[in-house]
Amino acid sequence: KDYTEASWKLYNDRPYRQDDQPLVDQRIGEGHAVRGVYVYSAMTDMAGMLNDAKYNAAIDAIWQDVYSKRAYVTGGLGSVGGTEAFGDAYQLPNRTAYTETCASVGAVLWNHRMFLKSGASKYLDAFEQTLYNGLLSGVSVKGDTFFYQNPLEAAAGVGLDEAGRDSQQGRFAGAVAADQADALARGDRQL
């Protein structure tokens, strides 16, 4: 197969794959957000297990970059929907925020590892922020359905069915999952 044809362009984009330079030389969060947080989790493990100064410097710089320039107030990561990627610094649109639930899962795991490595409370703050606002918002109350994408803003009536529920599979239509909103509308306070 010819992997140089146009349809493979994205997959040959080395920064998108986080392999454009050695891991210890990376300093910013870039590329596919889910793959990124899992690579960063592994880098954190390496930094901690080996007590390697280069891995420590790299992962600390990447974390600082991600959480000061590329994370939403919910802890969600990945602002570019078409590529499920980190955007440029401060590129954090509300309506088109991708903030994939899978990236939140990875961010929770990464922040836990960063805390175990250093003991610094800022990592638990990011862990908690993401867990309660970026991860749980993407899971139904029953835990059997998930939202893939979690934008922070929805236009009134856009993507809603006649009953006012989210009609687009895999989309998040507000601050509360549709089944949670239905339960609240019924007066069911035991979510």
Average pLDDT confidence is 84
- How does the overall form come out from the CA principal axes? globular
Quaternary state reads single chain
As a percent range, the share of strand residues is under 5%
Order of helices and strands: HHHHH
| Radius of gyration based on Cα positions | 18 Å
Helix content: 40-55%
Query: How would a textbook summarize the main sheet?
Result: none
How far apart, in Å, are the first and last alpha carbons? 51 Å
Spans of at least 5 consecutive residues with low confidence: 167-184
Q: In terms of structural class, how would the helical and strand content be classed?
A: mainly alpha
Give me the number of helical elements.
5
Number of strands: 0
